[in-house]
């Protein structure tokens, strides 16, 4: 069989989601071992562990599991690590980066992508149970433009003042 290869968007992969939920190398290896990679003719799942390659996969990711410490233009430290898409995964940075920040900083700010209806729900239901601490506060970003749109205003009319549409749009924030 001739070799076929190509490019994948890494944030759109199951391995990125697994990397971002792993708490250490042992946990990463266990999560990788549980990936279903195929089905037999009898429709039984074939797992990575069945091929005995979870160790090799973990070795490839041994450096990728480490969060990156960067500096903002204001001189503030920031941890940047991972970020699977929220439409196919949980849409948050890594548990390791957030856990490290919680351990080292007075306060930690993180983001859950894809809006409150999907991103926040996945953050609270999938990521938070893997963290050493639960959030003390959550910020929801809502623009007047978005509230008007959710209140029934056509896109062409969003720049026009419409207090009633804003009021109606607030129903999505309850």
TrEMBL record:
Parts of the chain that traverse the membrane: none
Key words, A-Z: ATP-binding, Ligase, Nucleotide-binding, One-carbon metabolism
Keyword Ligase: yes
Pathway(s) of this molecule: One-carbon metabolism; tetrahydrofolate interconversion
BP GO terms, sorted: tetrahydrofolate interconversion
Assigned EC number: 6.3.4.3
InterPro entries: Formate_THF_ligase, Formate_THF_ligase_CS, P-loop_NTPase
Domain of life: Bacteria
GO molecular function term, any single one: formate-tetrahydrofolate ligase activity
Name this polypeptide is given: formate--tetrahydrofolate ligase
Organism in which the protein naturally occurs: Streptococcus pyogenes
């Amino acid at each position: 069989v001739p070799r076929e290869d190509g490019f994948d968007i890494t944030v759109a992969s199951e391995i990125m989601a697994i990397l971002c939920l792993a708490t250490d190398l042992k946990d990463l290896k266990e999560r990788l071992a549980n990936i279903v990679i195929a089905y037999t003719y009898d429709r039984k799942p074939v797992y990575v562990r069945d091929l005995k390659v979870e160790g090799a996969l973990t070795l490839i990711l041994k450096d990728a599991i480490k969060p990156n410490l960067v500096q903002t233009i204001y001189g503030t430290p920031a941890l940047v690590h991972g970020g699977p898409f929220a439409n196919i995964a949980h849409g948050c940075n890594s548990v390791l980066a957030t856990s490290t920040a919680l351990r080292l900083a007075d306060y930690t700010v993180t983001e859950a992508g894809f809006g409150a209806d999907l991103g926040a729900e996945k953050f609270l239901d999938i990521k938070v149970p893997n963290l050493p601490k639960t959030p003390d506060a959550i910020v929801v970003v809502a623009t007047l433009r978005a509230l008007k749109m959710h209140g029934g205003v056509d896109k062409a009319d969003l720049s026009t003042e419409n207090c009633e549409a804003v009021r109606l749009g607030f129903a999505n924030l309850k």
